[in-house]
Design goal:
It is a single chain. By secondary structure, the chain is an alpha+beta fold. It has a single domain, classed as Alpha-Beta Complex (Sufe protein. Chain: A), CATH 3.90.1010.10. The protein has 5 helices and 3 strands; from the N terminus they run H-E-E-E-H-H-H-H. Helix 1 packs across helix 2, helix 2 packs across helix 5 and helix 4 crosses helix 5. The longest helix is centred in the last third of the chain and has 20 residues. The termini are far apart. The mean pLDDT is 95.
């Protein structure tokens, strides 16, 4: 049912946890399914030096959060903003239509995180 990439990110999540003194931090919840995603970010030299996630939810939500952190780490906030749902779904090897809400939650959280960061700099 799930791609090998989804299962790998779920079983071996990358960048899980939180940053003690982040430059930006957001927590979003999907009201339809109850999944929760928290992202914390540290910026250095105009680039995303560190990004961490905490998630409570289904397998695809955790996999999308993990993959998202890999996609944005090292990028400028402007480049990170260009990452969309399709790129994220590609990074996890695709998602069944019933699980696409996971990519929406991750991208919405990233947008909120980058908006918060932009307001501070």
């Amino acid at each position: 049912m799930y791609s090998p990439q989804v299962l790998d990110h779920f079983e071996h999540p990358r960048n899980s946890g939180s940053i003690a003194e982040p430059d930006a931090s957001v927590q979003l919840q999907n009201p339809a399914c109850g999944d929760v995603l928290k992202l914390t970010l540290k910026l250095a030299g105009g680039r995303i030096q560190d990004i961490r996630f905490l998630a409570k939810g289904c397998v695809p939500s955790i996999a999308c959060a993990s993959a998202l952190t890999e996609l944005v780490r090292g990028k400028s906030p402007a480049a990170a903003r260009e990452i969309g749902k399709e790129q994220l779904m590609s990074a996890v090897g695709g998602l069944p239509s019933a699980s696409r809400h996971a990519s929406h939650l991750a991208i919405d959280a990233l947008d909120a995180l980058l908006n918060q960061l932009a307001a501070k700099i």
